[in-house]
Amino acid sequence: MHPTRKAVATAAALLAVATAAGCDADSDADVSGSGSAKPGCPTVLAEAKRAVAKAEDVDAPWTGPTSGPKAVRGKTIVYIAHTLANPGPAGVAQGVGEAAKVVGWRARILNGKGTTAGVKAAFKEAVDSKPDGIVISGFGPEIIPKEIQQADAAGIPVIGWHATTAPGPSKDPKLFSNVTSRVEDVAKISADWIIARSNGRAGVVIFTDTTSDFPRNKSELIKKELATCSDVKLLDYKNIPIPEANSRSINEVSSLLKRFGDKWTYSVAINDLYFRHAAPALRAAGKDGDGAPYNIGAGDGDPSAFERVNGKTFQTATVPEPLSEQGWQIVDEFNRAFAGEPASGYIAPVHITTAANSGGALSWDSEGYRQAYRKIWDR
Question: How confident is the model at residue 276 (pLDDT cuts 50, 70, 90)?
């Protein structure tokens, strides 16, 4: 077991016992103000509690690939982030760089700076450098369709991270693979956490970015799952593009507090960084960092999100992507492409991190992924 998880093994065992007994393992789990009131969705609530207990399990063994081609040497890949200000693409970039060194490749990191023009310029720079592979990270290929076709015509495989709504290979747009958790699973468990923790009674704000297919689809799925519980009320569906989160969040959160007051008990965002920028407004309004609104990030689980969760400062939970692990997976997928083999098909399982189960860690990755990939690559 990972050292940071040993401290929470007993807590996880108690959680399983409490769940089996029909109880809530969290002493403050019923925090919506409903007290012992009967929930409006008892069947949905019971299912949500079971799903959350499973997702909070800290002893997650490696379930990814254990076989594949040995490392193909001497390759160059270019990683294009929508914006490196987004900790998700930035964290995956670090994993890609680490894994590339292991297999003896060169990895270049380009920053699209959060704009379509920036992404297009970065992609042109990437293609002009004639790399062996290109990663598009944190943005959809729909904003660069001609460029994707150009790479395909040049025989350059493209792999996405959070690029399309579905994991795995894509024919249109042409991607060798898209590395991501199942957005349906992430969205559902985020909503289930709110349903379970509030005992089926919550006033919720969703923070999203509707400028790209992936985050828009995720937030719509969250909204759909929340609607399965009749006493969970959606107060607002707030569109704040990720590149604008820094400049807009404080005013938007202040406005929400004025409009909804104590009715606003929970928030879910398609990315953790919204709560980084929301914290000053919540603090200025006299809100307790460990109180309502209780916030869960439906991705990506960067170190700052873990710090907020561990410190109980305006974020209660995150559904983290295993960012470093997925960077290693991207390198493995390229290695399969270079060797003429199909994509691995691996999809990381969904996980929820809270202060109770993080063990003080600042990231989440499956056990043993580095060892597994090194063994596959013979490195």
Answer: very high
Q: pLDDT digit string (tens) for 323-375?
A: 999 999 999 999 999 999 999 999 999 999 999 999 999 998 888 899 999 99
Kind and range of the H or E run holding 135: strand 133-137
Residue bearing tokens 């799952």: 225
What stretches of 56-115 show up as alpha helix (H) in DSSP? 87-103
What is the distance between the alpha carbons of residues 82 and 136, in angstroms, rounded to a whole number?
Answer: 8
**Which residues on adjacent β-strands are paired with residue 295?**
267
Count the neighbouring beta carbons within 10 Å of the beta carbon of residue 119. 25
Residue range 219-242: mean pLDDT, rounded = 96
3-state DSSP percent of the chain in helix, strand and coil, to 5: 45, 15, 40
43 in Cβ contact with 195 (< 8 Å): no
- How do 294-297 and 317-318 pair as beta strands? parallel
Handedness of CA 119, 176, 183, 101 (dihedral sign): negative
Q: According to DSSP H, which parts of the chain are helical? A: 3-6, 9-20, 42-55, 87-103, 116-128, 145-153, 183-197, 213-226, 245-260, 273-284, 303-311, 323-338, 369-377
Residue with tokens 């998880």: 5
How far is residue 5's CA from residue 77's CA, in Å, rounded to a whole number? 34
Of 190, 219, 260, 248, residue with least CA distance to 48:
190
Non-local CB neighbours of 13 within 8 Å, separated by 6+ positions: none
- CA–CA dist 264, 32 (Å, integer): 9
Across the strands, what pairs with 170? Answer: 175
The two structure tokens encoding residue 256: 């929400």
Omega within 30 of 0 (cis) for the link into 173:
yes
State how far the Cα of 98 lies from the Cα of 324, in Å rounded to an integer: 9
Contact in structure between 217 and 209 (CB atoms under 8 Å): no
* DSSP three-state, residue 227: coil
| Residue type at 219 in one-letter notation | S
Task: Look at strands 158-161 and 177-179 and give their pairing.
Answer: parallel
